[in-house]
Amino acid sequence: MTRLLKSRELVLSGAILALILLVESRFRGFAAPGNLAAVFNDTSVLIILALGQMAVILTKCIDLSVAANLALTGMVVATLNAAMPGLPVGLLILLAIGLGLVLGAFNGLLVWLLDIPPIVVTLGTLTIYRGLVFVVSGGEWINSFEMSASFTALPRATLLGLPVLSWVAIAVIALAWLLIRLTPLGRAFYATGGNPHAAVYTGIDVGRTRFMAFVLSGGLAGLCGYLWVSRYAVAYTDVALGFELDVVAACVIGGISIAGGVGSVGGAVLGALFLGVIKNALPVAGISPFWQLAISGAAIIIAVAFNARAERRPGRVILKRKEATA
Amino acid sequence: MSTRPGLDIGTRPRHLPDRLTGRVARALRSWELLLLLVGIAIFAANSMASPYFLSAWNLSDATFNFTEKAMIAFAMALLIISGEIDLSVAGIIALASTTMGFALQYGAGTPMLVLIGLGTGLLCGALNGTLVTRMGLPSIVVTIGTMSLFRGISYIVLGDQAFSGYPVGFAVFGQGYVAWVITVELAIFAALALIFGVLLHATKFGRQVFVIGNNPTAAAFSGVRVARVKMILFLLTGLMAGLAAICLTSRLGSTRPSIAQGWELEIVTMVVLGGVSILGGAGSILGVVLAALVMGMVTFGLGLLNVPGIVMSIFIGALLIGVIAIPRLIALARRRAA
């Protein structure tokens, strides 16, 4: 029973439900299924990015370049679409994922081979990628009339009552769950972050595992690059500026420990949904959208304080660090 | 990848030199000398690339590119040497500038504005320090959180509005001159470089900062009050951010919530470029001073060549990764060759 109460997923689900009911009690219609589906759809990109970020954070790293990666891939595919409207959308999506993978791999290589702290690497690539968006676009906007109809229509097309964007998020959630729970790589993410020294002794290549996490995060950011640009039908230099903080916030709120090795797919999704519900409730409740930045910041601090408390559990050291034994 | 100290004992004769490397030899191979040479090269390249570069007044204007950031970089250098980091400094600038603007609406004069700016910085530093030292939270995440929180409060207060109409006397910090082309900000920068240099390299406190960065456990066991020292460093960083907010607000003459956006990155870059180890435990104030000059000249030179600001940020980002990556690449190549 206490274990159930302590379960992060349950607490978060309760908090989200309470939040929805609170808004519903003041403003009828917020909890209507159609509106909730819209909130989910609006949060899809955050969910996808949070799942990629989760893999990175599980391995004791952090990827602050996701939003810049998203902006760069989004701008590249939008530019290609504007220049060559004949290119099939499927090809552009593959290209976005591929470019995202490459950008993520660049982060991963610097962390893996040169052992540079991930926060420094991704702070650096954050500005480089964002600057490259300006170089690619020359500071120009690409507006909806320059994009082909099929390019912008896909995320909005409905399938079984839900937009394709939502279905993509659901598919990514399912795939992430499979990857994390059922594959050796998923286990390696936890092992690498939980105890890198023990991971080395069990035969896990810590550096390579981190590299894979960055590649995954980059690929998902690339996919979101297409989704974002086509959904809002506009691409410019400042697309998703500062969104990396929301992504990290979603993970931290979802109970993914920044110290690595602790977290679940459900937690990341719920953390993202929590932010998504707040974001969509603010305008309904008539609160200025300018509150959102401060609320995310406060949520990060409160969540990380909670996590620290939850992780402080009694335990014994059974494997000493190898530096200590030498 | 990982080395195993201890395993080599007995297998290889240990080489113990009779004396440590001489001062001159050490100075010749130091990071600071390399930075100095890079600085001179950039200075020469700039003067050749643009006829407007080599003018006393232009160079004086160019110092604004780094003075405010360097004030924070000095305190940040100490913080990073101690093994922590503060990514909320730009957020503190925004909040301090906003509280000053807010006080201005109620008729605060220049001395009051300065007190409020510094006080806000201290309070923000106290919040960061408390969360990190009292609650044992990782400083990277805490300050990512407070970064949004501080700037978020500015957005709540200001929205898309701006505060302006600062008193004439307030303009002295960002627009005043001490003598000839020496700006007030440049004088503050020089004074702080001296103060922080002495604090880090010639006091007990400075020694403690290095010890904590190298081994916090050993520091605690040798009687260093680790939490207290770190708390002081967070307060100091907050105070410097408050000071930078005063100078920047005074120079711009207005406050918007987007003020100093992205500065945390440039400040960390300045510190790392100055040879401070991002893992803590090593670094010097002289290095940070030289890095500030180099970065200021690069930005100014590129500006004279009409390179847009966002493209300059590519250079800054590449510089940040490059200065750490290049020595490691060389070490990697050497290990491969051996």
UniProtKB/TrEMBL annotation, chain A:
Localization annotation: Cell membrane
Domain of life from the UniProt record: Bacteria
Transmembrane segments: 47-77, 89-113, 119-138, 159-180, 211-229, 250-278, 290-310
InterPro entries: ABC_transp_permease (IPR001851)
Keywords: Cell membrane, Membrane, Transmembrane, Transmembrane helix
Pfam families the record matches: BPD_transp_2
Topology in the lipid bilayer: Multi-pass membrane protein
Main localization category: membrane
PANTHER family linked to this entry: ABC TRANSPORTER PERMEASE PROTEIN YPHD-RELATED-RELATED, RIBOSE IMPORT PERMEASE PROTEIN RBSC
Protein name as it appears in the record: Rhamnose transport system permease protein
Organism whose genome encodes this protein: Limimaricola variabilis
TrEMBL record, chain B:
Keyword 4Fe-4S: no
Bilayer disposition of the protein: Multi-pass membrane protein
Keyword Membrane in annotation: yes
Transmembrane stretches, start-end: 33-59, 71-96, 102-124, 136-157, 177-200, 232-253, 259-278, 285-304, 310-331
Keywords from the UniProt entry: Cell inner membrane, Cell membrane, Membrane, Transmembrane, Transmembrane helix, Transport
Superkingdom assignment: Bacteria
Pfam family, one: BPD_transp_2
InterPro entries membership: ABC_transp_permease
Annotated compartments: Cell membrane
Subunit structure: The complex is composed of two ATP-binding proteins (LsrA), two transmembrane proteins (LsrC and LsrD) and a solute-binding protein (LsrB).
PANTHER family tied to this protein: ABC TRANSPORTER PERMEASE PROTEIN YPHD-RELATED-RELATED, AUTOINDUCER 2 IMPORT SYSTEM PERMEASE PROTEIN LSRD
Function, in words: Part of the ABC transporter complex LsrABCD involved in autoinducer 2 (AI-2) import. Probably responsible for the translocation of the substrate across the membrane.
Protein name: Autoinducer 2 import system permease protein LsrD
